[in-house]
TrEMBL record:
This is Arginine decarboxylase. Signal peptide: none annotated. It comes from Brevibacterium aurantiacum. The keyword Lyase applies. GO terms for molecular function: arginine decarboxylase activity; pyridoxal phosphate binding. One of its GO terms (cellular component) is cytosol. Its EC number is 4.1.1.19.
Amino acid sequence: MTGTDSDEYSAQAAFMPGPSAAGGTPRKRLDSGESESGFRSRPKQSQLERDPGMPASTWRLRSDAWEYLKFAIKRLAISGGDFSMIAADGEVWRSLRSLKTIELYWGGFGQRYVEDIAELLSNGEFDKAHDMITRAVNRLRGTTVPDVADDDHLNEDERAEHKDRQDPRPRFEVLIVDETTEGGRDELHTDLLKLRNASDQFIYDYVIVPTADDAVVAALTNPNLLACVIRPGFTDHTREVLSRDLRSTVALAHEGTATSPTTPMSPLNSVRRVLRLADTLAGLRPELDLYLMAGAHIENLAGALTHRFRRVFRREDQFELHLSLLRRVQHLYDTPFFTAIREHARRPAGVFHALPVSRGGSVVGSKWISDFVDFYGLNLLLAETSATSGELDSLLAPVGTIKKAQSLAARAFGAKRTYFVTNGTSTANKIVHQAVVSPDEVVMVDRNCHKSHHHALMLTGARTAYLEAYPLNDVAFYGAVPLNRIKQLLLDYRAAGRLDEVRMITLTNCTFDGIVYDPEKVMAECLAIKSDLVFLWDEAWFAFARFHPVTRKRTAMVAAEHLEDRLATDAHATAYRDQQTRLFDAQTGEPAPDEVWLNESLLPPPDAVLRVYATQSTHKTLTSLRQGSMIHVYDQEFSHGAEESFHEAYMTHTSTSPNYQILASLDLGRRQVEMEGFALVQKQLDLAMSLASAVSRHPLLKKTFRVLTAADLIPEEYRQTERTMPLRDGLATFWHAWTTDEFVVDPSRITIEISGTGVDGDTFKHDFLMDRYGIQVNKTSRNTVLFMTNIGTSRSAVAYLIEVLVKMAEKFNDPHELQAEYSLDEPAEIMPPLPDFSAFAPAYAAEVPAEDPSKQLPDGDLRTAYYAGLRRWNIEHVLPEELGRRVESGDQPVSAGFVTPYPPGFPVLVPGQIITAEVLDFMAALDTREIHGYDARLGYRVILPKDRLEAKK
């Protein structure tokens, strides 16, 4: 792949002899003529690039190494090459060494399989080696082509293994952590084959590792794992050669566990080591089911370990373990609503309800719309129904399949409750606002949030207090709201005696441009000031984050769970009491100055109430039909009155005729991410880094385009990590940044600055990417284009985009070719600064304190202003030039509605807002094709001032 990091992805640089893992036995370096496990006559170490070790994302390295071996060995076999030719091909041996380490952590082949290939190659048996490599390649490709044409030469065990590889049933892998011999591993695999039954719905392979470190590496690198069996016989430190990055990541994963790996062995310490590993694996991959297989006293262990392990077995209970593994995966695989609607489509029925299209009634016999069926298929129509009873259930009052599907989604996303929404996250946001907020309560919200929040605030009658994100004027969009800005506004409300009016804080995580908050820290510090705040996290673009060990920690549901656990500890209660002595005067009880509160990392009271909601556009980043969204709830008050108000809001905004295809796709999308979410997200992030690397390193691309990094998107004061693209520097750096920095950048989004092309973002998007090359993108700014990867992005798609960017760069660097159409010789107009929210006009703003007008709080009444702006006699339309003259003369015109340009995609003006010169300058500089709420022929809608309104009357 063009531009990929050789030290991260290329098999040419991986798994050569390097520094041994921490605590492991150093490996002997191999020179030409030496042998170890079948590897002979390799080039000397001095001839090879030093090994950086194994990258955390191995899916591509593994695939590429097998593919290269297939190509290289076939070429040698056809050409009649001899051993001297393969001995000189360092890439072959590097690929084998890479795979020898990788295959320890993946099921299906194992290290001995690679060693056997190396032995065949060393003996010049290229055809046999090629057959074995082809079998591996076919498995990785998912092909149904037989591995070998003739298996007569295979022994009985090899023939059984070959037959197993052709089994079409869904396959998963089970990690076993146990220090065992090679013979013991063979025995385990033999027992597994005996346990299998033709009636089993799934099959699985074992991945057997000897150490706790290896178990963590497997969890980090192998997304096919769905369960882990821990046997107390494992040791702590790996003997494999791992990169510094991966060793550091393993150490980070172990941090915070209760028992040190150096604790001397004893029966009690052995239990602690097991618990420590279980906690580490659960933190990395909560979707993994953990089982303990112990010897003596399992009755005593079972009671103590139930909350960590799904079951505890004795070693002889292998069959019970087998059944438990299959049964648990069946629970993950279950899609109750999709199954029900599929059965409904197969069942004969008489339709006597108001849906002519149901079962194709109005379509199949038509002469004029038969192409409807041809295009979409008959199943779509067979599944259409107005029935909301029986197995299909009712979305508004679910008791059966929909209720179960939503419960499964709550489990997958770590929520207490989950609700399906079939008309997008815009509606999901309105549901939460209406459920939580009453008229005249204050909601603090980032001004550059999605327009649905502004509309929800208008509908609920809440008083809106806008939070200003930091501006990124060079690229014409906003970042996120700094925590101290949120804390200061809360402290201002407290000082004014109005803190009790503040009901909810709404923030966008992550933003359209990929800026990600630290939800746990934000909620903790805000609850320290007001302990019953409600939080709504708009995660429309972040649903995928739940399914990666690093990105997961910045999701709202994980943050709420961690915060709940933290508040329950004695250590937190002690730390909270200590901090209170610094925050409040012991004599008067008065709070310390605001500076003290802003400079401390505030701790919430142990009895703080956690009320957290997250809305996600499942259809945007996971698998779902258009408009499929979810609301995730982690509300400790939900069963104590909040559920009733939520249900009323849900009924208000949810159709009585929901789209069943959307509901079925949400059910299936949940199944997919539980079964393979880690694999898909890992691949997505990896491909995004490939794109970033290609643009940054290709001579022509880096001359024309520039990838924006954390240094461009996050001011330095909000970052502790020095590396500006942490994931590109390795998993450990990525982990560290997402643990420590106030804001981080979602690595799946690549924002490219295009000033070097001489055209604006809108032209670049429509005239070049879409019209000429068929490449679709969501967002541009004046001088940037956002490329979003997703779980459906392929390597071929990334390669095509790189190819297109190179072609475009060639054109842009030859201005004569485009001169007739675009003024490439004219510098792009400099954008004015992004305008902050000016203020609400006095008629809609908070009361001005008589003693100190400078302390006026920012909240305003959107709803009153909105309806005032809808009355024709109350407004006038003013063209920009005239409005500018009025502002210059000292007038303060008031916006009568929402004005939302795309880009940047949020309301620049809201009802009741004072229109300023800064806003008009910004709007005048935009050349976007789409502005909601503004008619260029008529101008801006403005609320008439009282004197002019009275004169008009």
